[in-house]
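[Meeting: bench + compute handoff]

Bench side (C.D.) handed over the final construct sequence. Compute side (W.E.) agreed to return the predicted structure before the next meeting so the bench team could plan truncations. Sequence as handed over:
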Amino acid sequence: SVRHVTVLWLSVDYSEHTRRAYYADLAAWLSWCHRTGLDPLRARRADVDAFKSGLTVTGRDGTPRPAAPSTVARTLAGISSWYRYLQSNDVAEANPVDAVLRPKRDKASPLPALDEHATATLLDHAETRARRLDTEGAWRDAALVSLLFHTGLRVSGLTGAQVADLGADSGYTILRYTGKGGRRDLVPVVAPALRPLGRYLA
């Protein structure tokens, strides 16, 4: 059945974060299909275009507004993934999302990045604060800020790591972590990050 295949689709090869996002995307699409009386297995490109044009998000003030291009692109990617999986299991004949034009993602982040001076100030503040307070929590914060900056890891990759994931390779300290999609990898931990990390672990 479609329900059974959908459960399998969500359980295969996706991280927990991706599964939650795809579940929400599919729920929005199926809810729209239900409201408009459309059988999702008979949907056409025009139906997806209509759904896309009405996509909104609710702001903090409770007011709905048009979804950002990145949200639209991610939503369509989730729905398209579902249809591809249905097709590969002979449940759906076509993927109506295939021909839909998707917004191009901005190459630059919409959020401002810290410049070199601001980054140095942040790192110095975190470590100075840790030395002043000398608590486990303060050293943890300093270690996390420093590791995030010096390794470039995603927050989930770092917060999911265990002490046992620290090791050595060719004379360098390394941190093994789980990346996007459950892939295991490692990064070197440079001296500036080792200092607050060592104090925290001690």
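W.E. noted at the follow-up: The two ends are 55 Å apart (CA to CA). C.D. will use this when planning the next construct.
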